[in-house]
Design goal:
The structure holds two protein chains of two kinds. By secondary structure, chain A is mainly alpha-helical. Chain A is 56% helix and 9% strand. By secondary structure, chain B is mainly alpha-helical. Chain B has one domain. In chain B, a hairpin with a 2-residue loop joins strand 1 and strand 2. The longest helix of chain B is centred in the middle third of the chain and has 31 residues. The chains are: A mainly alpha, B mainly alpha. At the A-B interface, helix 3 of A face helix 3 of B. Chain A: One of its GO terms (molecular function) is DNA binding.
Chain lengths: 68, 170
């Protein structure tokens, strides 16, 4: 499963889901489903999210098995 | 995107229209059953007096169906004009072959639309052979028309159910 820190970093930057969505060109629902881990974004969207949240894609997304 | 968005609700509008068309087609089938075999069957000779043979049930159902179309289309056009004003970049055209219920707002919704379409496709691969098998039986034409309308209703329900899962409101 793809895990992420989108919710944590979005809160840290003070963005709402709608705001982050409009900055990255997606809907609020998409941000919500990414945060819940129910939608895996494309590489392009992952790069955009990482850019706006000022981290690397590696710091933003990881596979659950990597935690072991 | 909200649950009240016309693109999300479009399958429900389709279902309502189908139910009205089911009522109209019942009357239309009964009318054509009388009309087509022999035009003479439209008139009766009642003791030397020629009278028109009117099937009240068929006429009544066609009228009821047509009357129901009036509030349906007035509500639909109201909703459509409201939608087109609210979303000038995502206008719904009456004369487009592109189904308005396809939501392609972003990559997740494109994926959701594909998933919903795949479900509908799977349903059709089962429903069409089954309908053909039922058609082997000598049943009334209206029965087959109802089956086809029901398939259309189920298609819209499957699609709507899948899309709605992803329309979460705050």
């Amino acid at each position: 499963m793809l895990r992420n820190r989108v919710k944590e970093l979005r809160a840290r930057h003070g963005f709402s889901q709608t705001e982050l969505g409009s900055r990255t060109g997606v809907t609020r629902q998409t941000i919500g489903f990414i945060e819940k881990g129910e939608f895996s974004p494309s590489i392009t969207l992952s790069l955009r999210l990482a850019k706006h949240l000022q981290v690397s894609v590696d710091d933003l997304f990881w596979l659950e098995e990597d935690e072991i | 995107m909200k649950k009240s968005d016309l693109r999300v609700q479009y399958p429900l509008w389709n279902i309502t229209l189908i139910i009205i068309l089911m009522i109209i087609s019942y009357g239309a089938v009964r009318c054509s059953d009388i009309l087509f075999p022999m035009i003479r069957s439209l008139i009766d000779n009642d003791g030397g007096v020629v009278v028109a043979k009117i099937d009240m049930t068929s006429i009544f159902t066609v009228i009821v169906g047509l009357v129901l179309l009036v509030p349906f289309y007035s509500a639909y056009f109201q909703k459509l004009s409201k939608h087109n004003k609210q979303y000038p970049n995502d206008k719904i055209s009456l004369f487009s072959f592109h189904p308005p219920e396809y939501i392609e707002e972003d990559e997740m919704f494109r994926q959701v639309t594909q998933k919903a379409t795949k479900k509908v496709y799977s349903f059709y691969t089962m429903a069409i052979p089954l309908t053909i098998a039922i058609m082997l039986f000598p049943l009334n034409r209206y029965f087959f028309i109802v089956i086809l309308w029901l398939i259309f209703i189920i298609q819209n329900l499957l699609y709507y159910k899948e899309i709605r899962k992803y329309i979460v409101e705050i």
